[in-house]
Specification:
- The complex is a heterodimer.
- The radius of gyration of chain A is 14 Å and the shape is globular.
- Chain A has no helices and eleven strands.
- By secondary structure, chain A is an all-beta fold.
- Helix content of chain A is 0%, strand content 54%.
- In chain A, the strands form two sheets. In chain A, strands 2, 4, 5, 6, 9, 10 and 11 form a seven-stranded mixed beta sheet that branches. Chain A has a four-stranded antiparallel beta sheet with strand order 1-3-8-7, with no helix packed on it.
- Chain B is an all-beta fold.
- Helix content of chain B is 0%, strand content 57%.
- In chain B, the strands form two sheets. In chain B, strands 2, 4, 5, 9, 10 and 11 form a six-stranded mixed beta sheet that branches. In chain B, strands 1-3-8-7-6 form a five-stranded antiparallel beta sheet, with no helix packed on it.
- Chain B is globular.
- The chains are: A mainly beta, B mainly beta.
- The interface between A and B is medium-sized, with 19 and 21 residues.
């Protein structure tokens, strides 16, 4: 079973369109994230949700709107797509630090490669 | 500000040893992570250090010096499959990860 799964894996669309990427985790984790990785391979945090509540909202255009219907799902909707939105978007999850041996390591989905033409 | 520095690219020979360095500056510190990312794939967790010293895991070891804001990832008996990017990330006092840009490791036969 895939721990963190996101769909679609590839998305090609025109400027100005609206698109969504879905993410689900079956690890029972409390926190989920959206990261953007651009052509320079730098991972940038976009959003973080803990138990369906937004806890991180970095400087991201308000065209990007996350939605968490439950703690196992975190979807990303993007309005009015721009060329600069082309990147790989990674969903990830982590467990809250409760036990002494918990590290809070991230488990990543396979990524969704978005190409805006 | 908070930042992570690591070399952009390194080259090593199959069977050899390579050390990838990382220096960090964060507001508070709750641990240092190393992730491996093969081209076109997701990052995967390699190691976590929160106390000073060396953590060994098979061919991979990770070292931390909190006083120096420094860590390294040591890869022994390099194999071709170790060709990947290695990402250093430090967790700050708010338990947020600050990521480096990654070190692309090229292994030559």
């Amino acid at each position: 079973d895939t721990a963190v799964s996101q769909t679609p894996k590839y998305l090609v669309t025109q400027m100005g369109n609206d698109k969504s990427i879905k993410c689900e985790q079956n690890l029972g984790h409390d926190t989920m994230y959206w990261y953007k990785q651009d052509s320079k391979k730098f991972l940038k945090i976009m959003f973080s949700y803990n138990n369906k509540e937004l806890i991180i909202n970095e400087t991201v255009p308000n065209r990007f709107s996350p939605k968490s219907p439950d703690k196992a799902h975190l979807n990303l909707h993007i309005n009015s797509l721009e060329l600069g939105d082309s990147a790989v978007y990674f969903c990830a999850s982590s467990q809250d630090l409760v036990e002494p041996l918990d590290t809070g390591e991230l488990f990543f989905g396979e990524g969704s490669r978005l190409t805006v033409l | 500000g908070q930042n992570i520095d690591q070399p952009t690219e390194m080259t090593a020979t199959e069977g050899a040893i390579v050390q990838i360095n990382c220096t960090y500056q964060t507001s508070g510190f709750n641990g240092l992570f190393w992730y491996q990312q093969h081209a076109g794939e997701a990052p995967t967790f390699l190691s976590y250090n929160v106390l000073d010293g060396l953590e060994e895991k098979g061919r991979f070891s990770s070292f931390l010096s909190r006083s120096k804001g420094y860590s390294y990832l040591l890869l022994k008996e390099l194999q071709m499959k170790d060709s990947a990017s290695y990402l250093c990330a430090a967790m700050d006092s708010n338990y947020q990860l600050i990521w480096g840009a990654g070190t692309k490791l090229i292994i030559k036969p």
